[in-house]
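Q: I'm a student working through a structural biology exercise. My instructor gave each of us a protein and asked us to get a predicted structure, then write a short paragraph describing it. Mine is Fibronectin type-III domain-containing protein. I'm not confident about reading structure output yet, so if you can add a plain explanation after the tokens, that would really help. Here is the sequence I was given:
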Amino acid sequence: MYVTMMMTDHMLEPLLQLNVEVPMMHHAPMMNGDATQQVILVQVNPGETFTIRREDGTLQCIQGPAEVPMMSPNGSIPPIHVPPGYISQVLEDNTGVWRVVVTPHSECYPPSYSPALSPTHHLPPPYMTHPHFIPTSPAAYYPPASHGDVGPHQYYQHRLAPIYPEEILYNMTFLGREEHCKPPPKKLKERIGERQGLSRVTTPPSSTYKSGPQCSATPNGYGKGHASAVATSPGGGASGGSPGTKRAERKARGSPKHTDGEQQESDLDSRREQDVLSGIDKPQVSKIQARSALVSWARAPRAGASGRGQADGAPPTCSYELLLADKGSDGKYRVVYSGEELQYTLTDLRPATDYHVRVSAACNSVKGPDSEARTFTTHSAPPDIPLPPRLSHRTKSSLTLQWKPPVDNGSKITSYILEWDEGKKNGVFRECYFGHQRHFKVMRLCPAVGYTFRVAALNDIGPSRFSTEMVFHTTGSLPQMSVAPRLLRAGPSWLVLEWTRPSSCSPEEEPVYMLEMQDESKGAEFHTVYSGTELSSKVEDLSRSTQYKFRLSACSAGWRSAPSSVLVCRTGADRPGPPTAPAISDVTPHSFRVTWDPPQDDGGCGDSTYLLEKSEGTSEAIGQWEVAYRGPLREHVCDGLRAATLYSVRVSAIGTGGHSQSTESVLACTLSLPPGPCHPPTIQVPAKHREVNLQWEACDGENESLLYSVEMRGPEQEEDDVTQVYHGTQTECTVASLLPGATYRFRVCAANDAGNGPYSDFLEVTTAAGPPGQCAAPVVSLTSHTCAVVSWEADRSSGADISGYRLSWGQDQDSLELVYSGTDTSYEVSDLEAAVSFCCRLQAVNQVGASPYSEPVWCRTPAAPPDAVAGLRVREAAPSPDRSEPFSPSTCLALAWDEPRCNGQEISHYTIAVGDDHVASSTTCHVIRELQPDTDVQVRAENAAGAGPFGPCLRVRTRPLPPPAPRLECAAVGPQSLRLRWGESGKGPLTNQVTYILQMEDRNQRFVPIYRGPSRTYRVQRLSESSRYTFRIQAVSEAGEGLFSETCSFSTTKSVPPTLKAPRVAQLEGNTCEVTWENVPPMRGDRISYVLQVLGGRESEYRQVYKGEDTTFQLSGLQWNSDYRIRVLACRRCLDTSQELCGSFSPSTYFSPRRSPSASAGGAAVAGAASTRGLTDEQFASLIVLGVASFSIFIAYLLQLLI
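A: Happy to help. First, here is the predicted structure for Fibronectin type-III domain-containing protein. I'll explain a few features afterward.
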């Protein structure tokens, strides 16, 4: 880079002529008071970067070639900040122009040489760009300037940067001493060009020298690291002077040189920082969707002893750049993120697209290399929104539509959905086509009518959104509007409409009329209610008293008219329904109140008038009805009626639609007046010992509505204490349940709806003597569980002496038997059963007869010990198997017995006597373990009353011991199978009748049997690779089922890649051949690589020529007319164990390179050679075997002939 300084004596006037309207900077200083100013031209060579700091602190990067005019406020050369290893020199040419040349400290670069690795420089804030220099050339290349060969007039046409009033920074890529004299390598030039292409994507870094959003590490050309050194110059100087004075000033303005120790230390720090940043891992991709993915990366490592922290001692922060490419891992990358975060969400991705991402870190102004690329593929998505359909052909009755397929987003489009609004313009679409075609013809349309269409695409992921709606019209002219229909007649549920024939129709045409109706209760749409050729129509099934709108349209074979104007009409009201049945209340001897509810169906007429009618008599003998009330009220009081008279009433409703039916007649009877006094009752039949028959005369004649009440006063009751014994309409009654030989008094009165009449005088009656009355309940006393004493008291209320008592005894009332008859008042019942309920009753007898039985008395004998246990037997297996204590018929005995009678107390437990030992059990079955031979077993039951007797003895024989579980081993392991084997256990011999049960644990941690049989080996198939399975085994024989063995776990191995087919060879230009082979997809996330081996010429062994993930490889340097054999195998790299599993080699392929005049002929020659000599090892072995067999058959035939 060169900084050219020109005095304003030479430059100021031309500058002012460029743009006289732009004022000079107001803070530019004056030199020596003569208004002289000094302008500095900064020439930025190609490949260099010029960095300027603005007033707001941001950085602006200017790529070369360009020239930036700077204004010196005091006429002095600005201090130049250069990185370690570089120096600045001030030179003056013959024209008086000063040039500041920045060169490496070594002498490899002359002053006129511009390095290929773009150095960048730094200038302090006082030196600002001149406001009159406007950019004029977008891209112009100028060679590096040397003193004396570039005039001042050549600087006006370069591309100039905008004006920046603040500090200007220059940065230079640092190179080691040993690299200064070397030409730039080719790869580095390509990387610099790539980074310059990405200079448009910048973000604000965290470093002090990269704080602006428009300047980052990549566009500034930072490589491995950079540093800065500051050189100062004198502050003033005159604009003129002798050459000797200028040379003295140039010497004073030179930058001081750095010592070799400082440069070496800076070089070591930069290299150490770059080596640390080069260890960043490739990023990880997760949460992959169709259009987004989350990329994360690990924090960059930092040098522990570099000492390149910030000024305040805080650790330096690192920034990261994330680069994305979609044209392959070696394609062009673009920066999508730059910052200090460790993750970033990529958006706006394309579905089903392969992307490659890599990350780089920059720390302490040192940028590390890019990491390895990570490849990922976005998911498939529904298709994009298709373009709207377009019209390809139309007629009066059809429209032919076409559409183009949208982007399928990774899944093939299977069908299209075409919808239309049927020309109704109501926004409701219906499907008219569904299929894989991209065109459709809509038929049976009306002429001159517009139809709206939209289309959507469908794939295996789902449907796309519908396209933009398009309106297409059929051809033809729209006829005149139809005449609106007219209303002829209207009913409650129907309307009759008529219309006239359109005047535009010819006599030969027979138009079809479509009558449409709008029901506001169902929506604002018109629905067709009639379609035909008639000129009238009756619309039925309508609602009464409802407004409807109608319109008419006509259509023929070639036209369809527009809808007519709307006709608004209303249905009529219907006659109301009958009101509810009237209710009668507030009945008096001369009036009653009638109320009713309105009808449920008012006929649509609103308020109704009610008509109340009444008639004297019942419904069978109704006379003439007369109107009692007419009006809107729903109640009425009927007065002026006769007492004790029956009336019938009914109600009907009257509305605008007519007169409703009358309700059913309701009977109402007025109340009667209270009756007069009655005559005393009389006795027509002599009184009995328990009942009396009374009769009396009717009051007020034969009035059946009168009720009579008979009251009785007993022999021991007071005068005011009476008992009602009868209430009814009869004039006689029988009073029962009286005491024999007692005196009773009776009286009677009549009553009606009006009230009760006065009572008659009393009648005294004495009953006759009778049998004894009901005895009191006897008392039962239990002396033991087999004996009870029954006692009772004598009854003397019958009026005669009792001659004896009868006692009945039994377990219930239906089984009572006479157990005692005599004059005693107690009796002892014996031989009873324990804990059984018994019932008894008592009856007294005298000379008149027997008394009723007393109330039954219940008692229950006390409980006793249980009876002896019976039915002791042995069961084949345990009734409820206990997993903690398995049942073995060899050492265990399962006993069961019948439950004995408990004798009133629940059996608490059973005692099992096994020899001298006793075992308790709470159920009727028990398992005895650790049996001894020749042992007697007895069982008895016990309850709260005591222990019952032992049952009979039982002698049984146990079974032999079941076989033990064998030891389970894994004989062979495969990726999808395990071969298990087991042998005999050392505890005892096994017979041939042993059956083995092999069980495997499933996903629910339950063991399920997978094999049952006598074999000692079994192969478990259909397993998953690299998975762990748990097994156990059990031996079963005639003695029973043995215990399960301990669980054993075995794991399957990982599958090796399959054997590939023989590779294919195609000869390219020269002695180069291209080898291709089939692709193997990743196996459970593990990547697949391939190994290619070649055997050629006189070589005895194959040699490896390629190993990688590609499925093609080019062999070069082959010998003409030499035989080669190639083969390939696939290798699987396990991510979890870092193990590489290789499959078998593919069949080998023969080929021989041939000289040919063209590449196509060469490919054919190789293909021909491969086809003629491409025998695999297996095919060659088969040919040998076939030849030997044919020769053997021939020799055998000859021997047969000789014999």
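A: Here are two points you could use in your paragraph. The two ends are 108 Å apart (CA to CA). The helical segments are 8-18, 186-197, 243-253, 260-277, 1159-1173, 1177-1202. It's a good idea to check both against the output above yourself.
Q: Great, thank you!
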